[in-house]
Design brief:
The complex is a heterodimer of chains A (399) and B (243). Chain A is of the alpha+beta class and 399 residues long. Chain A contains 12 helices and 12 strands. Helices cover 55% and strands 18% of the residues of chain A. In chain A, the strands form 2 sheets. Chain A has a 6-stranded mixed beta barrel with strand order 2-3-10-5-7-6. In chain A, strands 8-9 form a two-stranded antiparallel sheet. The chains are: A alpha+beta (399), B alpha/beta (243). The interface between A and B is medium-sized, with 27 and 31 residues.
């Protein structure tokens, strides 16, 4: 008896009691739909948070001047080691696996155009910053590439700052004053909004050397290093530390990665997802008991049929298989219906909250289907064994 | 072909035991037509189930085509039921969800016969019982006699050597009963060994040999001419065969 014929035979038997079969299919479908939908939501939450970090550049190594430790009295003259543009150049040239890096000098200053003025953070950097921080330019261009030591009098405005100063006017080519310095506006950034607490819309970018001169700084605020792969982060971090140690003759810098924080968030949310799925699975166990009940009733009702099948030369194995396949058909159909319903549910939710990236992950769909089949097998075995244990003579004696 | 030696079948009941079959010894030759008669509870059905490998004797030896089947493994007994023995029941036992054709195909389904061959052989078997035109009717669309004829087609579709019929006419009117018996006898004339359990003397009278059971024992064996009154034979349209 081929598996296909077995399935056809079992399906024929199920058609005999459609309502009962339909209800147990619905039981499994609800459980599976819950598993699929909750996994999609949990995974969506995780993807959302990880995406937020990735938007900032998840493969980022950040170099800070000085060691992060609390000191009581700093001994006189024990100046914090500067992080210089030479350090930046050395990192770019000598550390392997670095995709690109950008120096950062920061300060705050008032930007004026005509009568209007606005105090905003001023970031001094180079052309690479755009890519390192995944920013986009709405009009004009970003800072021009070239030697970071060169400086220059160009400025790129955040969209909020541009709107506040210029209103509807086109800022490109206009000259603004920052403190006593004059800059020509070369570009306006695309809106980015707040990202993990920092507003990328209300600020301005100038060449790094100019910013250091403006704020009278000898040290950079940060060096941002972008790696190709997150696996490289540790290696790059080590290389930068040893490079700077060699240059400064002391461990005078701190190197941090974002990736540690990302993975912490990610694993918390993963645990949450698993907990949700665990709760949903309870409903599957309930559905399984439902299937078992249906199959037991079916075995009791079809005693004569089972006896007949044996008299006609069906082996115990074939009778067992026929009833088991019935249970698996019930749960498998429930699984497929559940996956479709769960996916539809998630789709509907995404229509209402479009910013939330909830999609049932492929592994969850696969796991749900396997789970459904397992429910059929586990809860179908006992009724099927009862069917084979039936005495064919007793079964045939009645009509 | 069949030899029974001191067959006992005992069922536990309450605190004690019930001897459904007690010390039955007899034999059947290939192509024989025998009737097994006796009152309800006399053990004739139990004996039939033992003959059909559906039940095992508690004690004794059962040789089927030279093999001691009472001690065969379940797989071997399943193969015997599948290939060598056909059953016809009082309540037909057709699966209501399958067509006549589907019901006749059932034994071949378990035997793993290919789809095309199954269809062809089922059609031939249905043709043989005169129901080819009803192949696609479900049991509830067939009359009682037609149902039993479908059941006969199903019983013989595997070309068994033994056909066991348990009250095959018990649920049929006279005309249908006569038709069904004629059909069974036709199969018998083609070489099939036929054993019919019945308590209808007119049906029993058609058999070449009658075995009477009472209280689990085989009490009387006779040819049909000796065992049945003349009157019963006159009633029958075709007459029973004489030994």
């Amino acid at each position: 008896m081929s598996p296909l014929e077995l399935a056809r035979f079992a399906a024929g038997a199920l058609r005999g009691h459609r309502l009962r079969a339909g209800l147990s299919v619905a039981g499994v479908a609800i459980g599976i739909a819950a598993v699929v939908a909750l996994t999609a939501l949990g995974e969506g939450a995780r993807a959302y948070v990880v995406g937020e970090f990735a938007a900032l550049g998840a493969n980022l190594v950040i170099v800070l001047p000085g060691k992060t430790e609390t000191t009581g009295h700093a001994p006189l003259g024990a100046a914090e080691r500067d992080l210089t543009l030479d350090d930046y150049r050395a990192i770019v040239q000598r550390v392997p696996l670095v995709r690109q890096a950008a120096p950062l000098a920061a300060g705050s200053e008032t930007v004026r155009w005509g009568e209007r003025s606005r105090a905003v953070p001023i970031l001094g950097t180079t052309a690479e910053f755009l890519k390192v921080r995944r920013l986009r330019v709405a009009s004009g261009r970003f800072l021009s590439p070239g030697d970071p030591d060169q400086g220059g009098a160009e400025i790129v405005l955040g969209p909020a700052l541009a709107r506040e100063l210029f209103g509807a006017a086109n800022p490109l080519g206009e000259v603004v004053r920052v403190g006593q310095w004059r800059f020509k506006v070369v570009g306006v950034l695309a809106p980015r909004g707040r990202s993990l607490g920092f507003d990328f819309d209300d600020l301005a970018f100038v060449p790094v050397r100019t910013a250091m001169r403006m704020f009278n700084r000898s040290s950079l605020f940060r060096i941002l290093v972008d790696c190709h792969r997150s696996d490289d982060l540790d290696r790059v971090k080590r290389d930068i530390l040893s490079l700077l140690k060699e240059r400064h003759r002391a461990e005078a810098v701190t190197v941090i990665t974002q990736d540690a924080m990302v993975s912490a968030f990610s694993s918390i949310l993963q645990a949450l997802t698993l907990a949700l799925v665990g709760i949903a699975s309870v409903s599957l166990a309930v559905a399984g008991v439902g299937i078992m009940n249906v199959m037991l009733v079916s075995v009791a009702e079809r005693r004569a049929e089972i006896g007949l099948l044996k008299a006609l030369g069906a082996s115990n194995g074939q009778v067992l298989a026929a009833f088991l396949v019935e249970a698996v058909l019930l749960s498998g159909t429930g699984g497929v219906v559940g996956v479709v319903a769960g996916a539809a549910l998630v789709r509907g939710l995404v229509q209402v909250f479009p910013q939330f990236p909830a999609v049932p992950p492929a592994w969850a769909v696969a796991a749900a289907l396997v789970l459904a089949l397992a429910v059929g097998i586990v809860f179908g075995v006992w009724p099927a064994r009862r069917a084979t244990a039936l005495d064919p003579v007793a079964a045939l004696a009645r009509r | 072909m069949i030899r029974l030696e001191d067959i006992w079948r005992t069922f536990p009941m309450g605190g004690g035991e019930v001897h459904a079959v007690q010390s039955v010894s007899t034999s059947f030759t290939a192509g024989e037509h025998a009737a097994l008669v006796g009152p309800s509870g006399s053990g004739k059905s139990t004996l039939l189930h033992i003959l059909g490998c559906l039940d095992r004797p508690t004690k004794g030896s059962y040789f089927f085509e030279g093999r001691e089947v009472a001690r065969l493994g379940e797989d071997e007994r399943t193969r015997l039921r599948r290939f060598r023995i056909g059953f016809v029941f009082q309540f037909f036992h057709l699966l209501p969800r399958l067509t006549a054709q589907g019901n006749v195909e059932l034994p071949m389904l378990f035997a793993g016969t290919g789809r095309e061959e199954r269809r062809e052989r089922a059609r031939r078997a249905l043709d043989r019982v005169g129901l080819l035109g009803r192949a696609h009717h479900r049991p509830d669309q067939l009359s009682g006699g037609e149902r039993q004829r479908v059941a006969i087609a199903r019983a013989v579709v595997m070309n068994p050597s033994l056909l066991l019929a348990d009250e095959p006419t018990g649920n049929l009117d006279r005309t249908s009963a006569a038709e069904v018996m004629a059909l069974l006898e036709e199969m018998n004339r083609d070489g099939l060994t036929l054993i019919v359990v019945t308590h209808d003397p007119t049906i029993a009278a058609r058999a070449a040999r009658i075995l009477r059971m009472d209280d689990g024992r085989l009490v009387e064996e006779s040819g049909s001419a000796a065992g049945v009154s003349l009157q019963a034979r006159v009633d029958l349209p075709k007459g029973a065969r004489s030994p």
